[in-house]
Protein: DUF4397 domain-containing protein
Organism: Desulforamulus aquiferis
Amino acid sequence: MSSYIRVLHASPDAPAVDVYANNTALARNLSYRNFTEYLQVPAGTYNLRVFPAGTMTNPVIDTTIEIPDRSIFTVAAKGRLADIGLLLVPDTPGTVPQGMINIRFVHLSPNAPNVDITLPDGTILFSNVPYQGITEYSTISPGTYTLQAREAGTNNIILNVPNQTFAPNRFYTAYAVGLVGETPPLQLLTPLDGNSYIRV
């Protein structure tokens, strides 16, 4: 049976990269903040190597990952270039309550504190999420939201993201990327997850 993976470049100071799995290119010239499409792959063990785009020597990542049968994953390159690594984010198959959305949060900002993800009125969607933390999905109504990242346990807003629109009957992940007080700045990426439309 097949599985599906996509690659996210979330290393804030790394150049564009080429990504190879068992010497087959998964991504070419993938730049910061960008995702590949989901790629269908056989389940199994993969040697994953990441190179600065256009090169095939001195990989910045050289590691082995296991892709289970009938699974969907986002493979995120994370951390600053000096300590770059991979985080596997499973897009767990499931169902969304009719007319609602499922959303979760992944913390990929290497210099940000633990955060609460809130609404402007202080409603907490996800609390005390550390760097590299992956929350469970939470069910909310579809619509357009302003999302805020606050230093955990405080009202100190470190990121305010208006006009985030989420359509019903879908899965989303909000990925925090970038750096607090540095360049590139802290941002939120809110792509549609593969479990919204891929059946495995």
Observations:
- Residues 2-90 form a domain with the Immunoglobulin-like fold (CATH 2.60.40).
